[in-house]
Amino acid sequence: MSEEIINENIEESNEDIEETNIVEEESSVEENFTINDLPGVGPATAEKLKDAGYDTLLSVAVASPSKLGEASGVSDAIARKIIQVAREKLNMGFETGLDLLKKREQVIRITTGSKNFDALIGGGFESGSITECFGAYGSSKTQLAHVLAVSTKLPKEKGGADGAVVWIDTEGTFRPERIKQISEGFGLKYKDVLENIKVVRAFNSDHQMLLAEKVEELINKENVPVKLIIVDSLMSHFRSEFMGRGTLADRQQKLNKHLHVLIRLAHTYNLAVYITNQVMSKPDTFFGDPTEAIGGHILHHASATRLYLRRGKKGSRVAKLVDSPSLPDGECIFYITDEGVRDDV
């Protein structure tokens, strides 16, 4: 081999090493970049942001300027700049369909314990989005919530999420003794399962909204690995506090804000959100089922997956998939037993 070729190979190798070092340095800078390094964020501002739950770049990047400014005490203009830089550091631009397909591989599906029910919804209740279950009284919406609160504790390979549960209870329907029964059906120690569920009672819509916002603090400050948020039921307080058509616009605006917090939590932390919803009967329906979920278009658009539960024959329940971005409409029959949700009794 000639001397020139050897020298060229050595130079190319050196260039490769330099490029590798540069990439490693850039990667190191990205990994070490924290909210303290954002423009306009000094130690005092950083402390305020952390106290408000904005202690990661992602939480800052998905915040609104007004909320971030209020939490940190900076102007909207500075808040916008802070958010812009956080987004640039996280490369929050356009993505290809292939990139999103890879991200979808990270979606967790939480089992119901019923093969038919799981098959209906693509393998289980999925993380990263809201699933709404609506139905009349006694259709097993809350029963299903208890089942999911237990199965979330299961390891991922067994249909769980290996994570904790936050239960926002607006109607006082959480029953620890029911959790104990279902835990035994899944072969889990009920004390471990109950310890894994953070239950809090919401007494009005403002309290309910505040509790949803506090979930981020549980995750970031207390290191609780939340993988499921249950709101049972979503519309109870909104429905009782906003009476008549004159207050409908105010109610929907407030509801929209609440739902966006839940959507952001689901997306940011790859957790599942399960909400139960009440129904009303449409008096102008002459053919078919007059049952309709309350909450209007705002709620319907916010829920990625919508399920209608109703009573079936001989003690069974029927789950109907009303809306999904990736699955066809369908129905399945299931039963509520002492052990949870089953395909038969």
Explain what this protein looks like in three dimensions:
- This protein has helices at 3-32, 43-51, 57-61, 65-72, 76-89, 97-104, 115-120, 141-151, 176-185, 190-195, 205-220, 236-241, 248-269, 296-302, and strands at 109-110, 125-126, 130-135, 164-169, 197-201, 226-232, 272-277, 279-281, 291-293, 305-311, 317-323, 330-337, 340-342.
- By secondary structure, the protein is an alpha/beta fold.
- It folds into 2 domains: 3-89, DNA polymerase, domain 1; 103-342, Rossmann fold (3-Layer(aba) Sandwich), CATH 3.40.50.300.
- A 9-stranded mixed β-sheet has the order 5-4-6-7-3-10-11-12-13. Strands 1-2 form a two-stranded antiparallel ribbon.
- A hairpin with a 2-residue loop joins strand 12 (330-337) and strand 13 (340-342).
- Helix 11 runs parallel beside helix 13.
- The longest helix has 30 residues, at 3-32.
- The radius of gyration is 24 Å and the shape is globular.
- The N and C termini lie far apart (80 Å).
- The model is unreliable at 1-30 (pLDDT under 50).
Summarize the amount of helix as a percent range.
40-55%
- Which spans have pLDDT < 50 for at least 5 consecutive residues? 1-30
CATH architecture of the largest domain: 3-Layer(aba) Sandwich
Specify the structural class: alpha/beta
CATH topology of the largest domain: Rossmann fold
Question: Biggest sheet: strands, sense, closure?
Answer: 9 strands, mixed
Number of strands: 13
What would CATH call the class of the largest domain? Answer: Alpha Beta
Query: Strands of the biggest beta sheet: in what spatial order?
Result: 5-4-6-7-3-10-11-12-13
Overall morphology: globular
N to C succession of SSEs = HHHHHHEHEEHEHHEHEHHEEEHEEEE
Average residue-wise pLDDT: 88
- Quote the distance from N terminus to C terminus: 80 Å
> What's the alpha carbon Rg, rounded to whole Å?
24 Å
Work out the count of structural domains.
2
Our estimate of the beta-strand percent is 15-25%
CATH homologous superfamily designation of the largest domain:
P-loop containing nucleotide triphosphate hydrolases
The number of helical runs is 14
